[in-house]
Structure prediction request, 432 residues.
Amino acid sequence: MGLVARDLRLVWRRPGDVTVVLAFFVVATVLFPLGIGPETNILARIAAGVLWCAALFASLLSLDRLFAADFEDGTLDLLLLAPWPLELATLAKCAAHWIVTGLPLALLAPLLGLGFGLETSSLLGLAVTLLVGTPTLSLIGGLAAALTLGARRSGALLALLALPLCVPTLIFGAGAVESLASGEGFSTHIAILGALALVSIATTPWAMAAALRQAGE
Amino acid sequence: MASLPFHEAPMLEVIDLTCRRGGRQVFDHLSFSLGVGELLALVGRNGSGKTTLLRALALLVRADAGVILWQGGDVRADPEVWRAQLAWLGHLDGLKGDLSVRENLLAGEALRGARSGEDRLDAALAAFDLAQLATRPVRTLSAGQRRRSALARVVMAQAPIWLLDEPLNALDSAAQQAFRSAVDRHLQAGGIAIAATHADLGLPSARRLELGAPL
Prediction:
């Protein structure tokens, strides 16, 4: 869709924005071994949780600009005036956000997991859970971004709104990797993560569209 | 409140439009109608509700009472069809600084759901003397050049109704002339234009609607 292409092109023109997010992800995860100490068994046990939390924070980092940039330069009005449903537009914006943050985070995570001493199967599991789970983070974050549009300190407010809503995704994402490591398989976890993603796809666009219309008033 | 005489076979008819914002009456029982090829200049002091009226017409702001009729039908019955009739120029230009003029215009068309606009693109760029600037990123342009790019987007949309908020902002005299010819061509093609302005548009054919200035 045209809007996804436009947003991706904008990111391409300013690769710094994405680089910062990925760099934050790397730095945040690397801090944990430094703080906890080089005990491999402890690190391997907390790796999934740490990587998932860091991915959550990293994806929130770039979300406050998701609609704010369009709001400030007047293109949000054009979006509101487009002769097709605004719900689709919000979905497209979140899809573009996921392609430039969620997707690279999921691909980068196994590399970092390697440093935590995770086994190969856990590394793959981590990538898969992030692939299935990060779309939910983009959508919930997008909803928080739409709701906080035009508010002062919208970045902090956004994190406050989005983080509690992301808890189920975090629990099942990190839980999946752990249950995989203990040999129980993770298909149930993946199914729940998928269900959370589908529920977000089915509900958040309407809420985002309503919030954007309100911001346009 | 201000109201204009009824025009024969109106395309756009606004009846008793009322809008309150923050407990304050912005405009009250506003009625006017516009026929084929007519231009309406919304005049009034700062804060008199010109922008709010334009936004209410575009359904960006919810009016508290009144109806807007397009070809006899209430526009709120099918907002998407109504929006497809509109070309919008807000007080912000609606351009992305990191994209070139050309990419901005094509992105605008894509948002409107148009498939391809290469031929219309060249005509719109030429109308505002932008051919030389087409590949420059918008952030490197001056305010007037950006305004011209935004106006080119309006022309390119080929929509029957233009809603323009202070279209002459930052335009030099040559660009103002280009704007007048573009509006003339639009009206001659049977279009309608509504422009909020505090300056004289320089278009003698324009009808005027004076909005009262609340406190």
